[in-house]
What we know:
This protein is an alpha/beta fold. Helices cover 44% and strands 14% of the residues. It has a 6-stranded parallel β-sheet, sandwiched between helices. Strands 1-8 form a two-stranded parallel sheet.
Amino acid sequence: MTPYYDVDAVVLDIEGTxxxxxxxxxxxxxxxxxxxxxxxxxxxxxxEVARAVAQVRELTGxxxxxxxxxxxxxxxxLDEDRKATPLKTLQGVIWSExxxxxxxxxxxxxxxxxxxxxxxxxxxxxxxxSSGSVAAQRAWFSSTPEGDLLPLVSGLYDTENAGPKQEPExxxxxxxxxxxxxxxxxxxxxxPGELDAARAAGWRTVGIRRPGEPYYEQGVGDHAQxxxxxxxxxxxxxx
Length: 239
Ligand SMILES: CSCCC(=O)C(=O)COP(=O)(O)O
Ligand SMILES: [Mg+2]
């Protein structure tokens, strides 16, 4: 059991924390991979697609990369599970349409949804901070096996609107956007580098360690840890 956390809000990482990395890699990644070519050729003028393609070209130093070269880069980043912002933007476009069509339903570990409902009912605010784009997060929380959970969530943050997840400045930005004191924010994540950055910004942290997840063996350094959300006691004192 972790200690008792008296906080105003809980900020959630997704992959490895609320949800299985295996599901993302085995279900969502192939869904995106098989649709990149059509997105890059048929919807090149869509402003979101054009902006992401420009970012890919900048990151790879290939200003003239055509759709085929851009697709190759996206596929290579997928193979590495690289959290590159333009990859996440384009995945988000494809996935949100897949969720809306009913092709996709998100995954949450069994302990997560009851905890989110209980924390929300207790007056805590819930936020998401994930490398997955805001569009993907919105779809993920809207289309769950337990229905639409988006009403539980007060705000969504990604690497575009908050910044990289391993930099303290991103957590300062989120604290300021939410209006919650840093010391009243609790961040739950599976990645030690993210937990370190949140703590450096003055947040409370709990590392989530689930057997079978990629960071399980590495552990979460000297952060408090829990194997599931029902091991975390969170409340919000009103005084
Ligand atoms: C709903 S986003 C899908 C998961 C994803 O693509 C991702 O990168 C999640 O990374 P996280 O920062 O939540 O570990
Ligand atoms: Mg994660």
